[in-house]
């Protein structure tokens, strides 16, 4: 199953915006016993999980890296809108190569450093808030409507299914795409690897690398 | 049978029974958990840390439930097939609202005064329905772990979704207010038995649309995906108000903000030369008086069921709005001419003379007593009425969307009609000054304010793009000392009223000499626009005691220019009629005044619309609301902003000695008339109506105390106790109840499936369901493990 959302934000809010969306998706996919809590983006509450520090770090690092890459790219200083995408993939527990769900977040970042909004009119924040809220609603609708494709839950871990966060920056230049990926073990460990690679190559390789690492860790 | 077979049989049986037992537990906990989650997200309870007893069912750990076990006992039994639908109502609790607070619902374009304190005990925001639907099931899907997984997902979604609803936002805001200060409002929830009918007596139910002007549906629904089990389907659905932007305003704030916004809207009033401070107070006085009149008369109105809400609203908030409008629009000249001369000030004219409303004498006495008790009335009290509930307008006016409920003027009158007027005015003025900087962008004002929008007079003003300059000049010139003048005038007026109750108009007429040329010219020019009224004015003067004779209205209008009394009457009628209609003050002057006094208009359920042009007809049901009655002013050509009739009348009574134009309204006696009418109306209303005083009438302690307050005991009786609520309405009496919950299930979960909120409902007897002790799962962890164990083992090879 593939779902996609569009995030609209500006440079100042994109980090929290993306974090909120990522967290909401994970909240709905962390099927293990959890204690919920709330966090807010522009006043809109989104759910989080208490105690999922690894996931928290992962989400933070991913979102931060994305923003950083957007702003650091020399080609994009004059662009009005930065575009990027982040994907979350969930895999089957037993068959790691089988991805049963993909969430693609298309992130559009208004370059408000280059084109700042008029101080008197901060309607853009309202727009971001509205888009954020709509995204949350969309997630709710989607998650509620599609339950049959979720594999059987066979463990009591917080996250019974391994997941991956993929990031791709395209500041109008597909050639400079860089990919970072994170793979999680069954125990919830996080492995972060960054590799500049073609989009066509990273999948299997990274997966293999990732799981090798996992095996290594598990055997220790 | 061999022992092996027997053993197998037993095992199968026990396995099956285990399965069914687990399914039962899943269903039970579905109800319990969902109710828990919904109620908890809307509860004002303390944020307790997760206790050991936190429910971990469905892999989501919630704090201890706030729901009393009693409420959920229906869904704790073993017989899941007899589970009734579980309804959770989330409502805004208004029971702690004090009389000086007004509840407003802010819409896209306007805001509406929702409920006078005490009138409605609560407003239903959401209604959740949980049910185990026996008609849908999936006999192939017997895998409990699969079902459990789906419920897990469901609760994840529910948790996320609960926080995105407007009621949650309202709840959060109110919680913040409660922490920081004192907020009488809170969001609460209750659990109801879905098999019982639901009534919304004494409260604003879910199906009641508050912002009547907004065309799209005020409700939205959400249906969660049903979770199919072998024996039934677990369904969760919701119906909720889209707009929960309820704001609480002190009447003071309301008044000032409205006043300011009205000021900004009364642009049609031509720039007046610096009006004397005296004029302003007078105008304000007249405004207040008018509101008093309206106030008193509104209670006596009988609203048709369709207008109930409007009536409630108009009764409630009648407030400053009118003050503002009146203050802004009335022609200063008229005011300064006749009013100045009339020493009686802005006393409302008991237009009714005697038939319907209280005698002017009584009104005058009332006002006097109020005046004495008024004390240092800050502009708050005067301004409270500003927030004219738009809903009142729209609902009451029906086809005349611009008419303002009579309630508006009432408030205005109320504030002005007391001895505190002088101080009132001064504070009023100062309030304006203060407010001008702060409340300009007040939400009330933003969309032209609730009253502003609904006030046709203001609307006209706004449309005409006139400046609030006239208004602002009026008020900006108000000085603390100006109040004194007003006070004297009011007192004089009261005396005058007392002395000649029936001849008020006559006595006033000679005094109506428009000293200012400009207002008169203006008035005359206005009159040109309203030819129809010209002929009957004089006739109406004579017949002012006759209620609502066709054609007399206009005559009253006509006479306005002739005499202060006529002006009063005219003003009063215009005020009552015009408020909702956004007539400019010019229009006010020319608006055909219903035959008889305004008090008549207001005190009886007379249809004001008759003499008017056809589009004024909506005021037929002005019964009981001064506001309603005031709605029928015809929108004049005008640019003139809505001239507060009372102001006009007042101006007429107390003519401005220095001849400066207070406003552009050229009707000298208009305000006087208006005020008279309004005072009559308000007095009659006060005496006749129970408990319809607007919340901001606190200043008029004398006034309020004289009116028996009607304690709405019914709503409390109905809703004070959950059980009672649950049992409200015998099933036989309410066909739309949950007798057939299937109907509810299959239809969009909405109000239609539930007993109409406005329906009269039989009071149900107490919950008669046997209160057997249901099994109660104390050890939830054990249950959880059991459920999970099934999942883990059974799904090793299972596919979904």
UniProtKB/TrEMBL annotation, chain A:
<dbReference type="GO" id="GO:0000045">
    <property type="term" value="P:autophagosome assembly"/>
</dbReference>
<dbReference type="GO" id="GO:0000407">
    <property type="term" value="C:phagophore assembly site"/>
</dbReference>
<protein>
    <recommendedName>
        <fullName>Autophagy-related protein 101</fullName>
    </recommendedName>
</protein>
<dbReference type="GO" id="GO:1990316">
    <property type="term" value="C:Atg1/ULK1 kinase complex"/>
</dbReference>
<dbReference type="InterPro" id="IPR012445">
    <property type="entry name" value="ATG101"/>
</dbReference>
<keyword id="KW-0072">Autophagy</keyword>
<comment type="similarity">
    <text>Belongs to the ATG101 family.</text>
</comment>
<dbReference type="GO" id="GO:0019901">
    <property type="term" value="F:protein kinase binding"/>
</dbReference>
<dbReference type="Pfam" id="PF07855">
    <property type="entry name" value="ATG101"/>
</dbReference>
Automatic annotation (TrEMBL), chain B:
<feature type="compositionally biased region" description="Acidic residues">
    <location>
        <begin position="756"/>
        <end position="765"/>
    </location>
</feature>
<dbReference type="GO" id="GO:0000407">
    <property type="term" value="C:phagophore assembly site"/>
</dbReference>
<comment type="similarity">
    <text>Belongs to the ATG13 family. Fungi subfamily.</text>
</comment>
<dbReference type="InterPro" id="IPR040182">
    <property type="entry name" value="ATG13"/>
</dbReference>
<feature type="compositionally biased region" description="Polar residues">
    <location>
        <begin position="290"/>
        <end position="301"/>
    </location>
</feature>
<feature type="domain" description="Autophagy-related protein 13 N-terminal">
    <location>
        <begin position="27"/>
        <end position="246"/>
    </location>
</feature>
<feature type="region of interest" description="Disordered">
    <location>
        <begin position="681"/>
        <end position="712"/>
    </location>
</feature>
<dbReference type="GO" id="GO:1990316">
    <property type="term" value="C:Atg1/ULK1 kinase complex"/>
</dbReference>
<dbReference type="InterPro" id="IPR018731">
    <property type="entry name" value="Atg13_N"/>
</dbReference>
<feature type="region of interest" description="Disordered">
    <location>
        <begin position="576"/>
        <end position="595"/>
    </location>
</feature>
<feature type="compositionally biased region" description="Polar residues">
    <location>
        <begin position="435"/>
        <end position="454"/>
    </location>
</feature>
<keyword id="KW-0072">Autophagy</keyword>
<dbReference type="InterPro" id="IPR036570">
    <property type="entry name" value="HORMA_dom_sf"/>
</dbReference>
<feature type="region of interest" description="Disordered">
    <location>
        <begin position="1"/>
        <end position="20"/>
    </location>
</feature>
<protein>
    <recommendedName>
        <fullName>Autophagy-related protein 13</fullName>
    </recommendedName>
</protein>
<dbReference type="GO" id="GO:0034497">
    <property type="term" value="P:protein localization to phagophore assembly site"/>
</dbReference>
<feature type="region of interest" description="Disordered">
    <location>
        <begin position="605"/>
        <end position="638"/>
    </location>
</feature>
<dbReference type="GO" id="GO:0034727">
    <property type="term" value="P:piecemeal microautophagy of the nucleus"/>
</dbReference>
<dbReference type="Pfam" id="PF10033">
    <property type="entry name" value="ATG13"/>
</dbReference>
<feature type="region of interest" description="Disordered">
    <location>
        <begin position="754"/>
        <end position="778"/>
    </location>
</feature>
<dbReference type="GO" id="GO:0005829">
    <property type="term" value="C:cytosol"/>
</dbReference>
<feature type="region of interest" description="Disordered">
    <location>
        <begin position="290"/>
        <end position="361"/>
    </location>
</feature>
């Amino acid at each position: 199953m593939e779902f996609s959302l569009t995030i609209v934000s500006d440079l100042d809010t994109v980090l929290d915006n993306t974090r909120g969306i990522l967290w909401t998706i994970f909240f709905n996919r962390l099927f293990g016993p959890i204690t919920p809590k709330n966090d807010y983006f522009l006043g809109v509450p989104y759910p989080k999980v208490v105690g999922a520090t690894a996931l928290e770090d992962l989400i933070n690092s991913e979102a931060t890296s994305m923003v950083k890459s957007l702003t650091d790219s020399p080609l994009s200083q004059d662009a009005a809108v930065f575009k990027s995408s982040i994907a979350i993939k969930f895999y089957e527990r037993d068959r790691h190569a089988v991805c049963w769900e993909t969430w693609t977040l298309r992130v559009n970042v208004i370059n408000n450093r280059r084109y700042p909004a008029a101080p008197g009119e901060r309607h853009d924040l309202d727009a971001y808030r509205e888009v954020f809220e709509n995204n949350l609603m969309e997630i709710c609708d989607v998650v509620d409507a599609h339950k049959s494709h979720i594999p059987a839950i066979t463990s009591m871990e917080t996250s019974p299914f391994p997941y991956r966060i993929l990031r791709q920056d395209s500041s109008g230049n597909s050639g400079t795409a860089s990919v970072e990926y994170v793979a999680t073990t069954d125990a919830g460990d996080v492995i972060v690897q960054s590799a500049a690679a073609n989009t066509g190559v990273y999948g299997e390789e990274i997966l293999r690398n990732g799981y090798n690492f996992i095996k290594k860790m598990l055997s220790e | 049978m061999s022992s092996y077979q027997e053993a197998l049989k037993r095992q199968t049986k026990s396995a099956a029974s285990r399965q069914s037992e687990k399914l039962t537990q899943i269903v039970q906990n579905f109800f319990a958990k969902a109710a828990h989650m919904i109620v908890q997200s809307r509860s004002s309870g303390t944020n307790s840390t997760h206790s050991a007893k936190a429910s971990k069912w469905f892999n989501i750990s919630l704090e201890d439930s706030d729901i009393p076990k009693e409420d959920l006992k229906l869904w704790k039994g073993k017989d899941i097939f007899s589970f009734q639908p579980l309804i959770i109502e989330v409502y805004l609790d208004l029971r702690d609202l004090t009389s000086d607070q007004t509840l407003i619902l802010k819409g896209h374009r306007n805001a509406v005064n929702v409920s006078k304190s005490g009138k409605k005990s609560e407003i239903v925001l959401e209604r959740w329905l949980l049910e185990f639907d026996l008609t849908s099931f999936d006999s192939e899907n017997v895998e409990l772990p699969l079902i459990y997984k789906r419920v897990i997902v469901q609760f994840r979604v529910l948790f996320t979704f609960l926080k995105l609803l407007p009621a949650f936002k309202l709840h959060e805001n109110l919680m913040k207010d409660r922490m920081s200060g004192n907020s009488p409002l809170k969001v609460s929830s209750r659990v109801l038995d879905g098999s019982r009918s639901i009534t919304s007596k004494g409260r604003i139910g879910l199906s009641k649309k508050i912002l009547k002007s907004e065309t799209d549906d005020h409700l939205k629904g959400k249906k969660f995906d049903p979770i199919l089990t072998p024996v039934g389907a677990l369904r969760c659905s919701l119906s909720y108000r889209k707009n929960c932007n309820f704001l609480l305003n002190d009447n003071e704030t309301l008044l000032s903000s409205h006043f300011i916004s009205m000021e900004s809207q009364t642009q049609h009033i031509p720039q007046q030369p610096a009006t004397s401070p005296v004029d302003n107070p007078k105008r304000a006085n007249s405004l207040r008086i008018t509101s008093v009149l309206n106030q008193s008369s509104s209670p006596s109105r009988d609203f048709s069921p369709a207008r109930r809400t409007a009536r409630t609203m108009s009764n409630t908030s009648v407030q400053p709005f009118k003050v503002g409008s009146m203050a802004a629009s009335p022609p200063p000249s008229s005011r300064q001419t006749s009013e100045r001369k009339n020493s009686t000030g802005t006393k409302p004219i008991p237009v009714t003379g005697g038939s319907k409303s209280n005698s002017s004498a009584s009104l005058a006495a009332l006002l006097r007593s109020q005046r004495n008790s008024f004390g240092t009335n800050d502009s708050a009290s005067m301004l409270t009425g500003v927030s004219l509930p738009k809903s009142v307008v729209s609902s009451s006016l029906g086809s005349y969307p611009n008419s303002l409920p009579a309630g508006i003027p009432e408030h205005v009158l109320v504030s002005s009609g007391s001895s505190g007027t002088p101080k009132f005015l001064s504070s009023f003025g100062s309030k304006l000054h203060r407010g001008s900087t702060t409340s300009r962008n007040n939400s009330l004002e933003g969309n032209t304010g609730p009253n502003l929008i609904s006030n046709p007079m203001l609307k006209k003003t706004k449309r005409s793009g006139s400046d609030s300059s006239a208004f602002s000049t009026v008020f900006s010139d108000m000085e603390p000392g100006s109040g004194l003048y007003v006070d004297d005038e009011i007192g004089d007026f009261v005396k005058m009223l007392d002395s000649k109750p029936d001849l008020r108009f006559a006595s006033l007429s000679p005094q109506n000499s428009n000293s200012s040329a400009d207002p008169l010219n203006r008035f005359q020019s206005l009159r040109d626009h309203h030819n129809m009224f010209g002929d009957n004015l004089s006739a109406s003067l004579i017949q002012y005691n006759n209620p609502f004779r066709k054609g007399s209205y206009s005559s009253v209008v006509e006479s306005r220019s002739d005499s202060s009394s006529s002006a009063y009457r005219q003003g009063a009628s215009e005020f009552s009629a015009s408020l909702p209609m956004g007539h400019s003050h010019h229009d006010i002057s020319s608006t055909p005044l219903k035959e008889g006094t305004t008090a008549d208009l207001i005190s009886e359920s007379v249809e004001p619309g008759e003499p008017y042009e056809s589009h004024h007809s909506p005021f037929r049901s002005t019964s009981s609301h001064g506001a309603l009655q005031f709605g029928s002013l015809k929108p004049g050509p005008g640019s003139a902003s809505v001239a507060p009739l009372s102001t006009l009348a007042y101006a007429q009574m107390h003519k401005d000695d220095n001849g400066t134009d207070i406003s552009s309204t050229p009707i000298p006696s208009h305000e006087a008339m208006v005020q008279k009418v309004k005072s009559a109306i308000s007095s009659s209303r006060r005496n006749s109506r129970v408990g319809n005083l607007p919340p901001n009438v606190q200043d008029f302690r004398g006034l309020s105390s004289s009116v028996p307050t009607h304690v709405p005991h019914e709503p409390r009786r109905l809703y004070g106790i959950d059980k009672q609520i649950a049992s409200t309405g015998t099933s036989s009496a309410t066909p739309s109840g949950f007798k057939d919950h299937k109907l509810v299930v299959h239809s969009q979960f909405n109000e239609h499936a539930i007993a109409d909120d406005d329906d009269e409902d039989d009071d149900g007897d107490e919950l008669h369901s046997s209160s057997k002790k249901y099994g109660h799962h104390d050890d939830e962890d054990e249950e959880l493990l059991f459920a999970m164990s099934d999942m883990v083992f059974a799904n090793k090879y299972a596919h979904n």
